[in-house]
Amino acid sequence: MTVVGAALLPGMPHLLAKDPAPAWADLRTAVEQVGEEFREAGVDTVLMMSTQWFTVLGHQFQLDPNPRGHRVDENWYAYDYGHVGYDLRIDTELTERWADLTAARELQARRTHYDGFPIDTGTVTVTPLLDPGRQFRFALVSCNLYAQVDDIATLGETGVAAAEASGRRVGVVVVSGLSAGLIQQWIEPSEDRISTPEQDKWNRRMLDALGRGDADEALRLREPFAREAAADSQFRALAFLLGAGVLKDPGELLAYGPVWGTGAAVMRWPVVTEGKHS
């Protein structure tokens, strides 16, 4: 048994706000619920791609066993949630295998390990909510903005294969928003809303397809969703979940709402795969 759960999570730091909008609080509670379910399922390592760790040349894998520091977000630094400390445990054995298997598929796989590496806002937002007790280790890969969708799917596939080879029970997580239409002014939390009704409609179409377990429809929608709703990183997160073998099952929507105009959702999949990728 390798993959024992999966989730789509938002990475905006507003989830950490001391005075959150109702939607931000609901999303936070849903992320915490996913973490509780991972613990109950005996997850050893969280296999994760955050769209806010973006690269433009190949795919980077985090090999620092203990990245720690303080993230000051470049957009939200004036708010309490724009300052986040982090102290991560990295599963370097699994990650080394992941990079090797990715390179064996003729993709550029670069190992990242240096002091002061800027861990992205999506990762530092999600990890303390998923894992407040630092029980999990994490295996982290970047999101290449220019990668083909099939290459992103390969990352999901090789990640699960690396977990199998390492004997790990993993939770698969993509940290990604939905529509990316930020409200272009400073607002109070109570004023938050999805930027346009059209983007809200597109978000709900995608979530409905995922909720029905209709992977073919979700994949068919991905390109128009990216175009019409300016989806976060062209919603490449979908391909990662596909490669990890997650999308064959219906997802359960735990929360959906706006974060400063963008669309954000927490969707979970109770997945079990055995030896599929070996």
Which H/E pattern describes the elements?
A: EHEEEEHEHEHEHHHEE
- Give the tally of β-strands: 10
Using the CA coordinates, give the radius of gyration.
17 Å
Morphology call: globular
End-to-end span in angstroms?
12 Å
Total DSSP helices? 7
- Main sheet? 6 strands, mixed
Q: Give the overall average pLDDT.
A: 95
Oligomer: single chain
Q: Which structural class is indicated by helix and strand composition?
A: alpha/beta
Helix content: 25-40%
Q: Give the neighbour order of strands across the main sheet.
A: 7-2-8-1-10-9
Share in β-strands: 15-25%
Low-pLDDT parts are: none
Detailed description of the structure:
- Helices cover 35% and strands 24% of the residues.
- It contains seven helices and ten strands.
- Strands 7-2-8-1-10-9 form a six-stranded mixed beta sheet, sandwiched between helices. It has a two-stranded parallel sheet with strand order 3-6. The protein has a two-stranded antiparallel ribbon with strand order 4-5.
- Helix 2 (92-104) packs across helix 4 (149-166), helix 4 (149-166) packs across helix 7 (237-243) and helix 5 (197-211) runs antiparallel to helix 6 (215-229).
- It is globular, with a radius of gyration of 17 Å.
- The mean pLDDT is 95.
Fold blueprint:
Elements: E1 3-9, H1 22-40, E2 45-55, E3 59-62, E4 68-72, E5 83-87, H2 92-104, E6 109-112, H3 121-130, E7 137-144, H4 149-166, E8 170-175, H5 197-211, H6 215-229, H7 237-243, E9 252-259, E10 262-269
Parallel strand pairs: 1-8, 2-7, 2-8, 3-6
Antiparallel strand pairs: 1-10, 4-5, 9-10
Helix pairs in contact: 2-4, 4-7, 5-6
